[in-house]
């Protein structure tokens, strides 16, 4: 007898656009816990959702990825390009899965799609920031080959609580730079 978990499988259709109404519905489906870990847009509510949706859909510095299951928008991801000429090989990844569709493998599928897209379109590094208390996020990124690049203590303040931000990166060349970071860290601390 095996304890194999039977997981339902859904097809994820990923498109580079969606309607404003679908995007608004998706944004309003993000509950407090999700908004606490993904707050790129500030507070999402019925008063703010239209301007957030319009601004996001029309941004030209982002590659956008809208993931649908049976026509319902359930995951949104993006890769943001940097303006700086010396950072053109680098981009920032962001992702949010709607509350009821989390922990079903869609975050993983969407991130993998975005990684493949990035490598195909000339990027060689993908960078992201995640709160240190976001275990789901950190585990997902580690499983996809992201390395911890830095820890920013008390980087953000929420009322009376400070939160630490972890920066993570994945490289097209597949190299693990942990040792190099450690050597540099020690040298910087001893030399300065
Ligand atoms: C963090 C986030 C993007 C992860 O996406 P997700 O779809 O929930 O994650 P996945 O389902 O792909 O993977 C998470 C877990 O589900 C498991 N899983 C994979 N396929 C599965 C399936 N078909 N059924 C059940 N579980 C599955 C994975 O093994 C993984 O398990 P682990 O946590 O024990 O390693 C998502 O939870 C989210 O949007 N959270 C709120 C916003 C947020 O934190 N965004 C990131 C900010 S940096």
Describe this structure in words.
This protein is an alpha+beta fold. The chain has a single domain, classed as Aminopeptidase (3-Layer(aba) Sandwich), CATH 3.40.630.30. The protein has 6 helices and 7 strands, in the order βαααβββαβαββα. It has a 7-stranded mixed β-sheet, with helices on both faces. Helix 1 crosses helix 3. The radius of gyration is 18 Å and the shape is globular. The model has no long low-confidence stretch (mean pLDDT 95). Bound molecules: coenzyme A (COA). The site of coenzyme A has 21 residues, from helix 2, strand 4, helix 4 and helix 5.
Question: Concise description?
Answer:
With 192 residues, this protein is of the alpha+beta class.
């Amino acid at each position: 007898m095996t304890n194999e978990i039977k997981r339902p499988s859904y097809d994820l259709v990923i498109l580079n656009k969606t309607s404003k109404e679908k995007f608004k519905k998706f944004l309003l489906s993000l509950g407090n816990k999700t908004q606490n870990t993904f707050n790129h847009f500030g507070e999402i509510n019925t008063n703010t959702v239209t301007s957030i949706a319009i601004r996001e859909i029309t941004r030209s510095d982002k590659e956008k990825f809208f993931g649908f299951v049976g026509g319902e928008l359930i995951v949104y991801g993006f890769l943001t390009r940097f303006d700086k000429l010396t950072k053109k090989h680098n981009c920032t990844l962001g992702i949010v899965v709607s509350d009821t569709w989390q922990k079903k493998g869609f975050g993983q599928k969407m991130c993998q799609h975005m990684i493949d897209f990035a490598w195909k379109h000339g990027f060689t590094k993908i960078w992201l920031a995640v709160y240190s208390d976001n275990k789901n996020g950190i585990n997902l990124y580690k499983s996809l080959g992201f390395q911890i690049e830095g820890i920013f203590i008390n980087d953000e303040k929420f009322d009376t609580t400070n939160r630490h931000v972890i920066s993570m990166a994945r490289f097209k060349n597949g190299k693990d730079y942990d040792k190099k970071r450690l050597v540099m860290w020690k040298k910087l601390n001893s030399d300065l």
